[in-house]
From TrEMBL:
Keywords: Cell membrane, Membrane, Peptide transport, Protein transport, Transmembrane, Transmembrane helix, Transport. InterPro entries: Dipep/tripep_permease, MFS_trans_sf, MFS_Transporters, POT_fam, PTR2_symporter_CS. Belongs to the major facilitator superfamily. Proton-dependent oligopeptide transporter (POT/PTR) (TC 2.A.17) family. It is a multi-pass membrane protein. It is found in: Cell membrane; Membrane. The chain crosses the membrane at residues 36-55, 67-88, 95-113, 119-135, 156-180, 186-206, 236-256, 276-298, 310-328, 353-378, 385-408, 441-459, 471-491, 503-524, 536-555, 575-600. PANTHER family: PROTON-DEPENDENT OLIGOPEPTIDE FAMILY TRANSPORT PROTEIN (PTHR23517:SF15), RESISTANCE PROTEIN MDTM, PUTATIVE-RELATED-RELATED (PTHR23517). It comes from Pedobacter panaciterrae. Its main location: membrane. It comes from the Bacteria. This is Peptide MFS transporter.
Length: 608
């Protein structure tokens, strides 16, 4: 097959699905299975670590502090690793091989985690960190290059692509979470790996559809330098490179050492020292942060007034993004534990039936729509890429089987479906003694993806209308909505006494948390990177994106630290007080963002 000229617009748009190149939907399904595996495993990790070593589904019996510390470091390293993966793709192996290597590493990582022994769990997490780093930044790069001659279609392409992201997260949490909690942790972890393998094989056997895109590293970046960009060039000097390397080393040591020192109860601690009465861990991270901020603001002073002020605005937005994710990322940790230990998840009678019907609809309808998209892709690409289509089809057959099995098991368990002993045995469903529905604790995380798919078109219309608010107001509204979401738990958990380990709060409060947090995400997450690209000179975008992802990485670790302190605050003043603190801080930052609108607007120099 001649691939020399396949990156021309005519060749890409010759074979279309829903008005877009078929290659976009290859990326859609590959990204969907990667997000399925990532979010499916993530939904289980903290619960697995903190589950009792006794019982039907024993975990490791860790205190929540240890679980949140490791989880925070893991998610922080995932974001940091994207810089490494981006570098390798740009300089050494190209986007396409970076995606393949990343998918392979993640497949192996999930397979290791299914073994459940300490060595394989830690090895699996390490493989997942590096795998995600290679995979995550390079998929979007391929999308961008596919549409470089069709910029008018790029927004629609990214909308479709991110629907794949949310579909994968939705089904990963729904199915891996269900199997992990109800059947066995290793089944949940293993299922994530199986579908990552499907994503890898589908991409590998269809990759020629992308022509020359991503085959080799780019010798020069495909950026158009603004002809009016005559600002000062500020190359990194030797001492600045040394500071960057020192900050990176100190930060990595701190992130990795933090869970190790806590889990080992101080037996393994690289930072076991004091300086001026300050603990080594605190001194190390404060030194790294101080050096980084000094270097950042020092370099900003070297640019022209306009560029410098725009970069100040980007730095402010990066701070707001950091604040958002530090709270938003309580979902897989603190909020999931709240769902497991403090929420009444037992439903009987009509409430059970209503939930089962609703759960069936939110599982079957999206799956049916995506299967229809698969059929459209199948018609366009089967002749050239038959093996890849067969692999993708097999993955969907398995998803349908698991989904139907889950629904049958739930309807039977609630007493709304009668099954003979032989049928139960053939379906591997245990006979129940009491008819009821118990909602999996991980199920609530599904609501984020569900609400995004539902609400994203409404927010998109808002941003396109004459009522479209400015950047500061969007960030401010997002932070206030984030705080109001936590306020529902402040009220819902008000009667839980300090020190209580269990409670029976209504599921209504958690549903409202996820609704408000999703609206907050739609105000902040999609628009943040957009403002980076608008405010930053093209030659500096890579550097500022690095700063942006660094802010998110730090936020993920801070989210873990906040989660570590939840138990201590809950035992002293009650879990409601913990959520009250987060509510107050988030709302205060949101109000501050709105009040600073005139200042930041001036710094942005009419960029909207």
């Amino acid at each position: 097959m001649d691939t020399k000229n396949l990156d021309t617009p005519n060749n890409f748009f010759e074979s279309k699905v829903l008005g877009h190149p078929a290659g976009l939907f290859v990326l859609f399904f590959t990204e969907m299975w990667e997000r399925f595996s990532y979010y499916g495993m993530r939904a289980l990790l903290v619960m697995f670590f903190t589950a009792s070593v006794l019982g039907d589904h024993p975990g490791w019996g860790w205190p929540r502090e240890h679980a949140m510390s490791l989880f925070g470091s893991y998610t922080a390293l995932v974001y940091l690793s994207t810089m490494l993966g981006g570098y390798f793709a740009d300089k050494l192996i190209g986007f396409r091989w970076a995606v393949i290597v990343g998918a392979l590493l993640m497949t192996l990582g999930h397979g290791c985690m299914a073994v459940e022994t300490p060595f394989f769990i830690y090895l699996g997490l390490g493989l997942l960190v590096f795998g995600t780093g290679f995979f995550k930044p390079n998929m979007t790069s391929i999308v961008s290059l596919m549409y470089k001659d069709h910029p008018e279609k790029k927004d629609g392409a990214y909308t479709i692509f991110y629907m794949g992201v949310n579909a994968g997260a939705f089904f990963g949490i729904l199915l891996c979470g269900y199997l992990g909690e109800k059947v066995g942790w290793s089944i949940g972890f293993g299922l994530a790996g199986v579908f990552m393998l499907f994503g890898l094989l589908q991409f590998y056997f269809t990759q020629n559809i992308f022509g020359d895109i991503g085959l080799k590293p780019l010798k020069t970046r495909d950026i158009v330098i603004d002809k009016d960009d005559v600002d000062n060039r500020v190359p990194f000097t030797l001492w600045q490179v040394i500071v960057v390397l020192l900050c990176s080393a100190l930060g990595l040591i701190w992130v990795i050492n933090d869970p190790i020192s806590k889990i080992s109860h101080g037996a393994s601690n690289l930072l076991d020292f004091k300086i001026a009465g300050m603990e080594g861990t605190n001194f190390t991270i404060l030194l790294a942060l101080g050096l980084f901020l000094f270097l950042l603001f020092y370099r900003l002073t070297k640019y022209s007034k306009v560029t410098k002020e725009k970069l100040y605005a980007v730095t402010f937005f990066a701070f707001l993004t950091f604040s958002f994710f530090a709270v938003f990322e309580q979902a897989p940790g603190t909020l999931t534990i709240f769902a497991r230990d403090y929420t009444d998840r037992i439903l009987v009678g009509n409430s059970s039936l209503i939930f089962l019907i609703a759960n069936s609809l939110i599982a079957v309808v999206p799956l049916g729509i995506i299967t229809w998209v698969l059929f459209l892709l199948f018609k366009q690409t089967f002749k050239k890429y038959g093996l890849a289509n067969i692999i993708l089809s097999i993955s969907f057959v398995i998803i349908w089987i698991i989904t139907i099995w889950m629904l049958v098991r739930d309807f039977y368990g609630a007493g709304f479906l009668n099954l003979s002993d032989s049928t139960l045995a053939s379906l591997k469903i245990e006979k129940v003694k009491e008819s009821l529905t118990q909602i999996p604790a991980s199920w609530f995380s599904v609501l984020n993806s569900l609400f995004i798919i539902t609400l994203a078109p409404l927010f998109s219309k808002w941003w396109e209308s004459r009522f479209n608010p400015g950047a500061n107001v969007k960030f401010g509204i997002g932070m206030i909505l984030l705080g109001l979401g936590m306020a529902f738990l402040v009220f819902g958990a008000r009667d839980i006494v300090p020190g209580a380990k269990t409670a029976s709060v209504s599921i209504f409060w958690l549903i409202m948390v996820y609704l408000f947090h999703t609206m907050a995400e739609l105000c902040i997450s999609p628009v943040g990177l957009s403002y980076v690209s608008k405010l930053v000179p093209a030659r500096m975008i890579a550097f500022m994106f690095g700063v942006w992802y660094l802010a998110i990485a730090i936020a993920n670790k801070v989210a873990g630290i906040l989660g570590e302190n939840a138990d201590r605050i809950a035992s002293e003043k009650g879990i409601s007080y913990f959520f009250l603190i987060i509510t107050g801080v988030a709302v205060a930052i949101g109000v501050m963002s709105i009040l600073l609108t005139p200042v930041i607007k001036k710094l942005m120099h009419e960029v909207r």
